[in-house]
């Protein structure tokens, strides 16, 4: 073929071919801008291209091509809002540090390279919330689709190409226990306190097979802290978290890999295995224990260098078991306390100073228990005889109340004096005056004094038993020791028959007058009395309808009073009512109508009697005339008089 014919053929062929291919290149020319091509692919160096997708929803597509295998992790940060991708085993090449986009949801793209970990990071800055979809075309191709996020649409979807599922490692219960005692040494003044408690920025994490050290570097960027990673820290991370505070995510990763942190200086965090921290703590505890043992040995050596002595001390009044407990604080490590209960004796072996403290303690507690003589008078008084047989409750002296008010002008008086109408003071100043109208020919006089501070209570009891209107039922006496109950009971037991499956049985019910008194000698020589008085009596006027047995009436009085040594207190208010009717008449004549009253006599009586109990406690003195010894006092660890 001639040369010019060949030239014409080639020109015609190229014209037809280009015209046929023009429609297929049009979409690429419309969507691809020359400046979007960042770099031409080369070995071990990626290239990126940026193109627009659906203009209605502002879709942006970022394509990544590399001749090496693409391995990546993705996370999202909120302040500022950005999507972060880390590519392992990938170099930066000629990629620019900052690439402005200003399209759709993307403002700009920033890249930087971690030389130590051979990690390339790409940060996509977003101007609002967005959905992102990552699609892997092959092992060396990746496309990131970003568009506006509807409210109901999630931020992440599964890859279109089947991949290994992302697994979130659970925390075993044993590791949770380690978490509870994790060796985080931050205090309120440490800078990493914020990392532990106060951080609230939320992030999304989606890691699959990522290097643990690389993940920790990401947290260094997020927190702004310098993170030092120990050589023993190794492993991979498989985790997916959504909208979690970054400090919690950091703790979860540490806990899953049994790691702990130390705060160093102002902004340095050292990440080390938890086992190393536990070893350090155990070593420090061993050092402290050794120091304590050494100190104890020194004290023991000092004690052994002093002479031990033995002292035998017999207990007279106290309980040796109770006293023994009080001696333990005075005993040294090399001392011994032997208790012989049969002879009530201590055998003390210790340093002289400790022995002296024990002996003084024994002397304080081994005191004779005071004995109190309880005298009581149980008096029955008829109510209709109250004017002839009475009690004069009188006030002598004066008392000063804390806040006395003398009139309605709220003027406060310094003291209040109680007087009778004549202005006299003393026994005549009676609050209740039921004294006899005539001079008593015989009787009993009892006075109670100093029951209250600054107040003398005078009680005068006059009885004219010769008239039969009042009588002393009993005057028992009983001796008891301090804080021990004394009981006096007088009466009878009434039998009652009860029927059961086992047959008829006879039970007895007490119908008695009983008095229980528990005295306590106070430090100022008075006597505190806990009194319980009970009177149970058979009421033959009220009997049961079935077996004609009487009912039991009960009366009880409980009180607590403070009485001077030798003083008297009284309990009253136990009443008994007796109704009797007696009729005398002449037979036959007393039955005559109207005239019968001339031949008969009726005598009805309604008697109400009150039971009064007078109690007089008297402290039994010893030969020295006192019940109180001189007790030593302990000052600053030394015993002195």
Describe the protein.
It is a single chain. This protein is α+β, with helices and mostly antiparallel strands and 641 residues long. The chain folds into 6 domains: 1-30; 32-148, Immunoglobulin-like, CATH 2.60.40; 173-277, 3-Layer(bab) Sandwich (Phage tail protein beta-alpha-beta fold), CATH 3.55.50; 306-365, Ribosomal Protein S8, Chain: A, domain 1, CATH 3.30.1370; 373-382 and 469-621, no CATH class; 389-466, no CATH class. Helix content is 19%, strand content 43%. The chain contains 8 helices and 33 strands. The strands form 9 sheets. The protein has a 7-stranded antiparallel beta sheet with strand order 5-6-7-4-3-10-12. Strands 18, 24, 25, 30 and 31 form a 5-stranded antiparallel beta sheet that branches. Strands 1-2-9-8 form a 4-stranded antiparallel beta sheet, with no helix packed on it. A hairpin with a 2-residue loop joins strand 26 (486-500) and strand 27 (503-521). The chain is elongated, with a radius of gyration of 53 Å. The N and C termini lie far apart (143 Å). Mean pLDDT is 68; it is low at 14-43, 151-189, 385-464 and 628-641.
Which spans have pLDDT < 50 for at least 5 consecutive residues?
14-43, 151-189, 385-464, 628-641
What percent strand?
Answer: 35-45%
What is the CA-based Rg, rounded? 53 Å
Q: What overall geometry do the principal axes of the alpha carbons give?
A: elongated
Strand order of the largest sheet: 5-6-7-4-3-10-12
SSE class:
alpha+beta
Main sheet overview = 7 strands, antiparallel
**What would the average pLDDT be, to the nearest integer?**
68
Instruction: Determine the number of helices (DSSP H or I, runs of at least 4 residues).
Output: 8
Q: Based on DSSP secondary structure assignment, what is the total number of beta strands? A: 33
Span of the ends, CA to CA? 143 Å
The residue fraction in helices comes out at 10-25%
Can you tell me the number of structural domains?
Answer: 6
């Amino acid at each position: 073929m001639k040369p010019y014919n060949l030239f014409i053929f080639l020109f015609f062929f190229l014209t037809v071919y280009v015209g046929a291919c023009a429609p297929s290149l049009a979409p690429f020319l419309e969507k691809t801008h020359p400046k979007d091509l960042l770099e031409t692919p080369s070995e071990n160096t990626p290239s990126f291209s940026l193109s627009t997708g659906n203009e209605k929803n502002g879709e942006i597509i970022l394509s990544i091509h590399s001749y090496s295998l693409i391995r990546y992790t993705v996370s999202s940060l909120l302040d500022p809002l950005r999507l972060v991708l880390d590519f392992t085993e990938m170099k930066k090449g000629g990629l620019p540090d900052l690439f402005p986009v200003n399209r759709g949801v993307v403002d700009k793209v920033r890249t930087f390279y971690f030389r130590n970990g051979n990690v390339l990071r790409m940060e996509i800055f977003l101007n609002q919330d967005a959905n992102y979809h990552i699609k892997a075309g092959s092992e060396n191709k990746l496309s990131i689709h970003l568009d506006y996020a509807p409210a109901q649409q999630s931020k992440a979807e599964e890859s279109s190409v089947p991949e290994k599922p992302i697994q979130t490692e659970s925390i075993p219960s044993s590791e949770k226990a380690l978490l509870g005692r994790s060796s985080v040494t931050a205090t309120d003044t440490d800078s990493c306190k914020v990392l532990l408690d106060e951080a609230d920025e939320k992030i999304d994490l989606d890691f699959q097979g990522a290097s643990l050290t690389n993940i920790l570097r990401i947290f260094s960027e997020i927190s702004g802290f310098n993170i030092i990673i120990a050589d023993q820290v190794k492993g991979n991370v498989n985790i997916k978290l959504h909208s979690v505070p970054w400090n919690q995510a950091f703790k979860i990763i540490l806990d899953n890999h049994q790691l702990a942190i130390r705060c160093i200086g102002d902004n340095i965090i050292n990440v080390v295995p938890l086992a190393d921290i536990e070893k350090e703590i155990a070593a420090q505890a061993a050092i402290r224990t050794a120091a304590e043992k050494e100190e104890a040995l020194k004290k023991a050596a000092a004690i052994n260098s002093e002479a031990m002595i033995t002292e035998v001390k017999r207990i007279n009044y106290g309980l040796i078991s109770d006293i023994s407990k009080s001696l333990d604080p005075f005993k040294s490590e090399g001392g011994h306390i032997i208790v012989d209960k049969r002879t009530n004796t201590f055998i003390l072996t210790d340093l002289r100073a400790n022995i002296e403290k024990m002996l003084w303690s024994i002397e304080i507690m081994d005191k004779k228990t005071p004995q109190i003589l309880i005298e009581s008078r149980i008096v029955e008084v008829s109510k209709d005889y109250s004017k002839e047989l009475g009690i004069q409750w009188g006030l002598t002296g004066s008392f000063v109340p804390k806040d006395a008010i003398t009139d309605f002008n709220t003027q406060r008086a310094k003291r209040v004096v109680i007087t009778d109408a004549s202005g006299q003071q003393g026994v005549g100043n009676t609050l209740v005056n039921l004294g006899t109208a005539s001079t008593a020919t015989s009787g009993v006089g009892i006075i109670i004094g100093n029951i209250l501070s600054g107040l003398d209570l005078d009680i005068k009891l006059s009885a004219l038993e010769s008239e039969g209107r009042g009588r002393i039922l009993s005057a028992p006496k009983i001796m008891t020791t301090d804080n021990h109950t004394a009981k006096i009971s007088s009466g009878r037991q009434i039998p009652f028959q009860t029927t059961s499956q086992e047959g008829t049985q006879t039970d007895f019910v007490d119908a008695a007058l009983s008095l229980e008194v528990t005295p306590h000698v106070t430090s100022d020589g008075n006597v505190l009395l806990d009194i319980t008085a009970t009177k149970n009596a058979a009421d033959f006027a009220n009997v049961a309808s079935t077996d004609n047995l009487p009912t039991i009436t009960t009366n009880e009085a409980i009180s607590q009073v403070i009485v001077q040594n030798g003083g008297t207190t009284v309990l009253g208010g136990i009443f008994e009512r007796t109704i009797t009717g007696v009729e005398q008449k002449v037979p036959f004549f007393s039955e005559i109508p109207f005239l019968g009253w001339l031949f008969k006599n009726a005598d009805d009586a309604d008697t109400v009697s009150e039971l009064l109990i007078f109690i007089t406690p008297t402290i039994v003195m010893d030969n020295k005339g006192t019940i109180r010894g001189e007790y030593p006092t302990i000052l600053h660890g030394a015993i002195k008089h």
